[in-house]
Structures are given as C-alpha cells and as structure tokens.
Amino acid sequence: MLVKGRKVAGKSETVAAHYAFGPLEDDIIIKHRLLTRTTTTRGEPPLKKLQKKFTAFALEVEKDADNYSDCERLAKTFLQELNTFEIPLLKSKAVIEANVREKENFNELKDEINRQILQTQADIEDLKKQLEESKIERQHKEECEAIRKLIAMQPPRSETQKLISELEREIAMLEAENTGSSRTLELRKKQFALLLHVVDELQNTIEEEQRNLVEEMRMAIEEHKNGVDDASGGPEAMVIE
Known about the structure:
Elements: E1 3-7, E2 14-18, H1 23-36, H2 46-62, H3 68-153, H4 157-231, H5 234-240
Antiparallel strand pairs: 1-2
Helix pairs in contact: 2-3
C-alpha cells in the first residue's frame, strides 16, 4: 500500500495519507478507465452504456412488428450516446497528441540541457586551464617583480662599471706583480742553484787540497825518518855495537 505525506493547513506536522491502491493497481485502474472512458468509480461505464443502446437498437430492428418510430428513436439515442462517447475520445486523442508533443519538447529540452551541461563542463575545464595558466603567469610576474626590486636595490650601472674597471686594473697589477715575483723567484732559484754548485765545487776543492796536504805531510815524515836512519848508521850498526 502506498503511503504519502501531506501537510494539513494551519499545522506544521505532517499527516500520513493512506491510499487504497498501490502504484501497480493505480496503473491498471487508470488504463481500464481510459479504455472504458470511466472517469469515476461510481456509475455505469460509458462503453457499457453505449453497448446497451446498440443492443436495444439491434433488438428493435430485428423485430417483425411495425416499429419504425421506435427504431428511429433508438437509433437517435444510440447516435447521441455514440457522439457522447466520441467526444471524450477526441479529447483523449488531443491530450495524447499534446502529451506526445510535450514529450518531444521535453526530449529536445533534455538534449539541449545535456548539450549545455557538456558545454558547461568543457567551459569549466577550459576555465580551469586558464586559471592554472593565470596562476603560473602571476607567479612569473611576482618573480619578475622581485628580481626588479632586487635590481633596483643595486647601484647604478656606471658605478658598477667603474668598480669593475678598478677591479680589472687591480687584477692586472696583481698579475704583473705575480709575473715579476715569479721571475724573481725563478732568478733566485737559479742563483741558489749556482751557489749550491759553487759551494759543492769549493767543498770538493777543499777536500782535495786536504788530501794533498796530508799526502805531502806523510811523505815529508817518511823522508825525515829515512834521513835519520841514514845518519845513525842504520839498524845493523846498532846491532854490532
């Protein structure tokens, strides 16, 4: 059983409304009413009434009696009932056609809405990309502004160029001094090497002279000794005595 909520006027609480039929039973009843043109649950259905009018007319026509006036009356009654039954059918047909057109319009509107949704989604993606690009561009601008401020804090180009020129002159002077110092050092190395060579030669000469002097002293001592031996008669004379 289908239960729906409704609000009672003047009250804030919701009152539960109970229905005798569920959705499936409602669909069956509505379909039956459309087919039989029954708008209410009370009274005789129009189709049944039309059937009775036609049956009465047919039975009256089948009689052999002279009942032309009755047949004409029943025929008119049947035609009136048929017209009465046809009008709701025409209305239903018009409603169906209107519903079909409305459904087509709804489908077109739905397609248009879906297209707009897709277009909006594409626009959102494009806007996201543009936002990211704008963020990157803004970041670049901020970096450029920071660099510009840093450059503005630096001294003018003329002063910087002057300082560079002075530094270049100092570097040239230092390089010249370094070159002179290198040459002086190289000269001192050569002089020191020459001095070492002279000292080495001098030491060799002194050692040679010392050796010669020792040799001469040794020879002089031997000669002196030989002379003393000759003056004393030698060792044999000493033995004879």
